[in-house]
Amino acid sequence: MTLVNVWFILIAVLWTGFFVLEGFDFGVGILHRYLSRDEPDRRTVINTIGPLWDGNEVWLVVAGAAMFAAFPGWYATMFSAFYLALALVLVALILRGVSFEFRGHARSARTRGIWSSLLIAGSIVAPFLLGVALGDLLRGLPIGSDQEYAGTFFDLLQPYALWVGVTLVALCVLHGSTFIALKTTGDVRDRAKRLARRAAPFVAVVVAVYAIWTHVIADKGVLPNPVEIAAILAVVAAAWFAGQGRDGWAFTLTTIVMAAVIVSLFTELFPRVMVSTNGSATDLTISNTASGSYTLKLMTIIFVLIFPVVAAYQAWSYHTFRRRLNRTEFENPTEE
Hints:
The protein has one domain (10-296): Up-down Bundle (Formate dehydrogenase/DMSO reductase fold). The protein is built from eleven helices and two strands, in the order H-H-H-H-H-H-H-H-H-H-E-E-H. The chain has helices at residues 3-31, 39-47, 53-70, 72-81, 83-105, 109-139, 159-183, 186-217, 226-243, 247-269, 293-320; strands at residues 272-274, 284-285. A two-stranded antiparallel sheet has the order 1-2.
C-alpha cells in the first residue's frame, strides 16, 4: 500500500470522524426545541454538547487541511466547484457557534427564540450541504481535462447528491436523539427515546435508498456492498434498542450507521476522488491529484506524532463530561 492510498484512507477516516462526532451535535441543535417543554428543558438539551461541540468541529478543519496537503488537485477543483455551497456551510457553522453563546446570554424569551431558530437552521443546512458536496464527488460533475470545474452552482443540485444531504440530516436527527437519551434524565430522556424509536424506521428507509442508489451510481450493480448492508441493519437494530431503553447500545448503533454511510461513499469512490461527467479520462484520481512523495512522508510523520495526542485529549474530554444532565441544574435562569 502506497502513501497515496494511505492518505485517501486517512481522509475518509477524518470525514467519518467528523460526521460521527458532529452528527449528534447537529442532531441536538435540530431537536433542542422539539424535545423541550420549557427553557430548563432546552438548556438541558443544549448543554449535553456544551463542552464538546467546538472540539468536534476540529475534525472538519483537519479533513480539509489533509485534502489540501495530500491531494492539492482534488482540493483545488472541489473547493472551486463548491465555493458558494461551502461558503454557506461556513455561515451555518458560524451561526451555530454564536447561537450557543448569545442564546445563553439572552434576557428575553423572544431573543432566545431567534437564536434557537438560527441554531436549528445552521444545524440543518451544514450537514445537508456537506452531504450534497460528498454526493457530487461520486455522482460526477463537469470537469475539463485541465482539472477545472466547468459547471455552475445549479449543476451541484443533482437528485443523488440531494438525497445524500437528506440522508445525513435524517441520520443526524436519529444520532442526536439517541445521544440526548444517553445524556439526560427524566422527561427529556423519555421524549428523546420516543423520537428515536419513531424516527428509526423512516431513517432505515432513507438509508436503504441511499445504499442502493450509491451502489448503482458507482456502476456496481444493485445489491449493496457489506458496509452498506451493515448500515441498514444497524438502523433497524438501533430502533429496537431505543424502544427497549438501551441508550448505550442505541447510540453505538447510530454511530455505526453514520460511519458506514460515509465509509461506503468513499469505498465506492476509490480510486477516484471526483468523478467527471465528461468521461473517465478526466476523472480526478488519487494518482493525478496527489502531492509528491516527500510531502506525503512528512505529513505521515506529523500525523503519527500528533493525532494520538489529539485523540487521547478528546477521549479524556468525553470521559470527563460523561455524566447525565438533569433539568434541575438549569432551572435557575442566571445559571450558565
